Structures are given as C-alpha cells and as structure tokens.
C-alpha cells in the first residue's frame, strides 16, 4: 500500500464529508493505493456516525473511536500503530490543511529519501494571538532540538516513512515535537515543504492559550528525557557537585576570616554574620538534595521497562 492518511479529530462533523471526498479525489487522480484512518478522539457530535457512513462507502476507510477525549497525540499514536502504507501522512480534520499536498509529500519521501517531511504554513490564516507566540515557540524548538531547517514544528500536515511512525511514541501533547521525537529515535533526514493553509471553515480551535505554557513545558521534558533520561545522575550529580564546591569555597572563606580575626586579635564577628556562612549552608543542603534526586532518578531509570530499548537500524 502506498499511503496511510491518519486524521485525528475531535468534534469535526461539519468538515468531515468535504475532507473525505477531497482526499478520495486526490488519491484516485494519482492512482495511489491508500487507507484513511480516522481517529475519533471522543467526539460528542456526529463525527463517528459520519465515519461509519464513510466505511460503508469505501473499504479504504478505517476508524478508531476513543471512549473519551484524550488529546491529539494519543490519537496520532493509535493511528500510527495501525498504519500500513509505505508513506504515512497526517493531517488535521478541520480543512486547514489541503489534501492537494499529498502527492508531492509522497514524492519527497519516496524519491528524495526523507524520513520525515513537515509542512510549513508559510502564509498562515490564524489570528495574530496565535501566529506571534508560534514564531517564538518555533525558534526555541529549533534551538533545543538542533533541527535548524524547520520553521513550523507543529504543522498538522506531515509525511513519514512507515518505519519512522513505528519507532516514535507520541504521548501527552508531544505532537508538537514529532520531528524532535524522530530525531531522538535516530531519523535525521528531516525536510520541509511549504504548504497551503486556510482559515478554519467550521467549528473552532480545540487548543486554548494554555498551549504555549504546555508547549514549553513539554519541550523541556523532552530535552531532559532525551539527554539524561537514561543517566539522570549525570545531570543532578554535576549540579550537586557544583553546589558542594561553592559551599566548600564559602566555608573556607568563613573559616579563614574567623581564624584571621583570632590571629590579629581584632574584634571577632560571629561566623553567622558572614554572607558566606549562608552560602555554605544552602549549598550543602541543595547539593545533598540534588544528589538524592540523582540517585532516585537512577533507581527509576534502572527499573523502567524500556531501559534496554535501543533502536536497531540493521542486523546481518
Ligand atoms: N484534535 C483532537 N483531539 C483534541 C484536540 C484536537 O483530535 O483533543 C484534532 C482536531 O480535531 C483537529 C486537529 O487535532 O483535527 C488540530 O486541532 P485544531 O484545528 O483545533 O488546532 P489548531 O489548528 O488550532 O492548532
Ligand atoms: Mg486547525
């Protein structure tokens, strides 16, 4: 099979018929063999009924329905597990992404050999309150992930080699960082394609302003777990040692001052009146805490079920 289209959706009943016939049209025009996997993320409108209708019309349609709303990432994850096409394409259900991009995305994966191609909504039709923070967010994501050629991490329209989606785990709200997840899993050929974007035709956006806070928190989590997830002591131990070292220097300063005043016979201030005394004290406490966090982290990572889960590319 050439293509699997994975579409996570939450209350998008109005858009679905138009989206489905548009995808069908594009696929037929280009003679692709394909499947469309709709993942209904606990919709409370008629979305599922409509998907059941599609299924009766076409054998290319598959549907997964969550019992409740889990989020876009879990939706993608389940769609990915089910996808069988050589190339997997994700798109939003709200008609903001255009199915006309599919053939070129497919070509880029198949012929140019990309592992992942991400859409870039160069000209966006979203309110300013969304586009400006998004720019900042993408700049941070580029810096932290080291994927410098991507302008738009969170574009819903993306294409993947099948093997890529089977090797990444999209959880929480990590759909914003799939290129980074792919890179962490060892897929480095990541490209970008400028795509058409449209204003939302029906319904309204499912993500509020909390997306920016959560987005940054997730980015920090991802950075930390990818760098130190398997060796937390390297992080906590380093900063613990730095704390102990500062604390030691402050202790030396406090003691020298005290001994000097004793030797010189000058008035002797209490050690507790020196700022270094407090630095030494807090340094020791924080240092101990950091080492404890490190040890606990090591214990947890030793016990994690996927501690020896390495991505093997080839074996002969
Ligand atoms: N979505 C979902 N579960 C959710 C929220 C969103 O499956 O909990 C789907 C939604 O139906 C759409 C896609 O994710 O197909 C992108 O959502 P939306 O268009 O609201 O995001 P935006 O374009 O505003 O970033
Ligand atoms: Mg949208």
Outline the structure in words.
The two termini are 27 Å apart. A seven-stranded mixed β-sheet has the order 3-2-1-4-6-5-7, with helices on both faces. The chain contains ten helices and seven strands. With 316 residues, it is of the alpha/beta class. Bound molecules: uridine-5'-diphosphate and magnesium ion (MG).
Descriptive terms for the model:
alpha/beta, 10 helices, binds uridine-5'-diphosphate, binds magnesium ion
Q: Largest sheet, order of strands side by side? A: 3-2-1-4-6-5-7
Gyration radius over CA: 26 Å
What count of helical segments does DSSP give?
A: 10
Order of helix and strand elements from N to C terminus: EHEHEHEHEHEHHEHHH
Based on CA inertia axes, which overall geometry fits? Answer: elongated
Ligands bound to this protein structure: uridine-5'-diphosphate, magnesium ion
Describe the biggest sheet? Answer: 7 strands, mixed
Write the layout of secondary structure elements.
Elements: E1 3-9, H1 16-29, E2 34-40, H2 47-57, E3 61-65, H3 72-82, E4 87-90, H4 102-110, E5 116-120, H5 128-145, E6 158-161, H6 162-166, H7 178-184, E7 190-194, H8 210-228, H9 232-264, H10 275-303
Parallel strand pairs: 1-2, 1-4, 2-3, 5-7
Antiparallel strand pairs: 4-6, 5-6
């Amino acid at each position: 099979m050439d293509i699997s289209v994975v579409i996570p959706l939450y209350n998008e009943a109005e858009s679905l018929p138009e989206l489905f016939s548009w995808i069908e049209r594009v696929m037929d025009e280009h003679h692709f063999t394909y499947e469309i996997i709709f993942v209904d993320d606990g919709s409370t409108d008629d979305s599922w009924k409509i998907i059941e209708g599609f299924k009766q019309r076409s054998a290319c349609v598959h549907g997964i329905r969550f019992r409740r709303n889990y989020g876009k990432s879990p939706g993608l994850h389940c769609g990915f597990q089910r996808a069988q096409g050589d190339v997997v394409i994700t798109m939003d259900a709200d008609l903001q992404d255009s199915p006309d991009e599919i053939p070129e995305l497919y070509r880029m994966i198949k012929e140019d050999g990309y592992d992942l191609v991400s859409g870039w909504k160069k000209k966006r039709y979203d309110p300013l309150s969304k586009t400006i923070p998004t720019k900042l967010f993408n700049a941070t994501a580029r810096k932290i992930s080291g994927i410098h050629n991507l302008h738009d991490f969170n574009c819903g329209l993306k294409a993947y080699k099948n093997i890529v989606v089977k090797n990444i785990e999209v959880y929480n709200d990590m759909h914003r960082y799939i290129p980074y997840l792919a890179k962490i899993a060892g897929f480095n050929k990541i490209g970008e394609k400028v795509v058409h974007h449209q204003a939302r035709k029906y319904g309204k956006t499912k993500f509020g302003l909390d997306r920016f806070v959560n987005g940054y928190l997730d980015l920090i989590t991802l950075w930390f777990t990818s760098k130190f997830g398997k060796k937390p002591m390297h992080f906590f131990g380093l900063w613990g040692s730095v704390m102990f070292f500062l604390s030691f220097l402050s202790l030396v300063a406090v003691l020298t001052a005290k001994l000097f005043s004793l030797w010189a016979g000058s008035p002797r201030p209490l050690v507790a009146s020196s700022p270094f005394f407090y630095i030494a004290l807090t340094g020791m406490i924080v240092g101990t805490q950091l080492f404890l966090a490190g040890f606990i982290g090591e214990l947890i990572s030793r016990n994690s079920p996927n501690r020896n889960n390495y991505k093997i590319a080839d074996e002969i």
